[in-house]
Amino acid sequence: MGKTKSLSFSFLAITCAFVLHFQYIVLAQEHVASSESEALGLTPETKRETLEIIIGGGGGGAYSPAPSPENNCPPPPPPPCPPTRLEKARAALLKFKSLINDPKGYTNNWNNNTETCNFRGILCGTFPVDNQQAVAGLDFNQAKFSSKDCTNIPLTGFTGILDKLEELTFFHVNSNNFSNQIPEAITKYPFFYELDLSNNKLSGPFPNEVLLSTKLVFLDLRFNFLTGSVPSQLFEKDLDVIFINNNQFSQCLPANFGSTPARINLKVVYLMK
Ligand SMILES: *[C@@H]1O[C@H](CO)[C@@H](O)[C@H](O)[C@H]1NC(C)=O
Ligand SMILES: *[C@@H]1O[C@H](CO)[C@@H](O)[C@H](O)[C@H]1NC(C)=O
């Protein structure tokens, strides 16, 4: 009795296990099948159609070989036009925008719906070298730009903008958070006349790049953190305006002060210390 009981119990247990296992397999298969058709977005009808087309396709079930590549080469695409000056400037400006923190929304209209020349703060003009339209000036005065992490924006390199637009005639960015270096590139810009970097975060020694910028007539570096001496060459340059007060220069007036043709704001120079 006890033996029969235990036997039938184990038989039942095995059967149950087998049935459960079998059901599990069936369920698993159904699940795979249904999720596959779900994934393909196919109803059973479309699945069948697809199958028929695959089996019977190619005309009478014959296997049609892939067309030979010689017959099917598209004509080579024309070489891409080099980007225009405006296109290059637009790319540089949009990249600059993506890297800065713009608390006043100054660059809000710098987007796909706005022509580059209508971007706020952008002045366009004809670049005399090749008569192309180009970005001739940037005016971000009072925009209070900083970098994305609310630190300074280096003027050169990854976040640079002044170093990417050789067509610039002016760069007016007072009251922002730009820091060194002033790019050496400006010394080669053929029509670069005005640099206003007042009330920014320039530090370290006087930026000699401005001395080498041949066309510069207006220089405003007030309210920064420049240190050391002011090079005497600054006063030999043919600048109309030099503002360098409210820095941390450590030097008396250079001996040649007074030889400058610039209409120097005297107060500026006396406030150098
Ligand atoms: C602007 O255009 C670019 C390139 O065509 C595209 O990748 C980007 O998603 C567009 N941006 C918006 C905001 O529409
Ligand atoms: C950026 O500069 C503006 C004006 O100089 C200033 O008010 C602001 O606090 C600065 N922002 C940062 C993050 O330094």
UniProtKB/TrEMBL annotation:
Single biological process term from Gene Ontology: cell wall organization
Residue ranges of every copy of the Leucine-rich repeat-containing N-terminal plant-type domain listed in the record: 90-124
Keywords from the UniProt entry: Cell wall, Cell wall biogenesis/degradation, Hydroxylation, Leucine-rich repeat, Repeat, Secreted, Signal
Pfam families documented for this protein: LRR_1, LRRNT_2
Signal peptide interval: 1-28
Localization annotation: Secreted, Cell wall
UniProt-recorded name of the protein: Cell wall hydroxyproline-rich glycoprotein
